[in-house]
Amino acid sequence: MKKNIILTIGVFDGVHLGHQALLKETIRLARKYRAQPQVLTFHDHPIHVLRGGPRVPFLLSRSANFELLRAKGAREVHIIRFDKKFSQKSPEQFVQWLRSKGQLKGVVIGDNFRFGHKAQGDVKTLVQLGKKHGFEVKGVKPVRLKGQVVSSSRIREALAQGRTQWANQMLGRPYSIEGLVVHGKKEGRRIGFRTANLKVAEELLPKDGVYAAAVKLGSKYYRAGMNLGHRPTFQNDDHHRQAEVHLMHYYGKLYGKTMRVHLLDYLRPEKKFASSGLLVRQIQKDLAKIEKASLAGLK
């Protein structure tokens, strides 16, 4: 026998406050119908599939995104393999496809949701089809902060401008990047500040500069400084773009480990110093600020 399900549908890039509002409504409706709250999302962005062109980087890797959706209450996350053929489904065909996922009791979508071939369907269309097939439809209004609609594109814009705290407010948590700790030039060690060099694959990198950050190792968060950029002070460097993280009060080995770095605040742009001594003095000032950074919002 098919289980009762409530579905919410979207890209959910970053699982920001707007996405969290959709999930909360999905969970509320699931309790009403004694159903499972489930998410339908995409492996790639539908706009890229339909229009082509360069990919817009996701705020989180898709695997990390799916994990966060489950952590926020989704019992299951279904991945739609969206392609040209799938995009040609009529609104009715799309709803029939939704109904194949289980005993559909409800669908939760954003007010601007469009579906079906050439985006023929909207919330009103889905309400009509819900009445026909016996499921409830809830349209959720966008979340606003400081008079602006919270969106993934607005978060990307804030990160590109170094407005980290504003991006974090829209996300409802600090923005983070994940990478594998690899061997670097060991310039940080030479000047007295060991750094972990991160090889970051999928996630969006913010504006170059120095950040107050935090890294969770085991059950503890360690304050950290992250430099993202090209290390202009060091002459014997190839100056490729690199994320380097200095963990405060941590002395263990990190090579080969995967590390997630939570960005708390943007401190300053990257700068070329006339000497390594001047760089060291600036790093000491940066670390004094990082020592006072709040870890609120980290779990």
Strand content: 25-35%
- Report Rg: 22 Å
Shape type: elongated
Cα-to-Cα separation, first versus last residue: 38 Å
CATH topology of the largest domain: Rossmann fold
How would you characterize the largest beta sheet? 6 strands, antiparallel, barrel
Give the low-confidence spans.
none
State the CATH class of the largest domain.
Answer: Alpha Beta
Helix content: 25-40%
List the domain count as a whole number.
2
* Separate helix tally: 10
CATH architecture of the largest domain: 3-Layer(aba) Sandwich
Structural class: alpha/beta
What's the pLDDT, averaged over the residues? Answer: 89
Give the helices and strands as they follow along the chain: EHEHHEHHEHEEEHHEHEEEEEH
Total beta strands: 13
Q: Any overview of this molecule?
A:
Helix content is 31%, strand content 28%. Helix 1 links the parallel strand 1 (4-9) and strand 2. A six-stranded antiparallel beta barrel has the order 8-9-12-11-10-13. Strands 3-2-1-4-5 form a five-stranded parallel β-sheet, sandwiched between helices. The protein is elongated. It folds into two domains: 4-148, Rossmann fold, CATH 3.40.50.620; 175-291, Beta Barrel (Elongation Factor Tu (Ef-tu), domain 3). The two termini are 38 Å apart. The protein is of the alpha/beta class and 299 residues long.
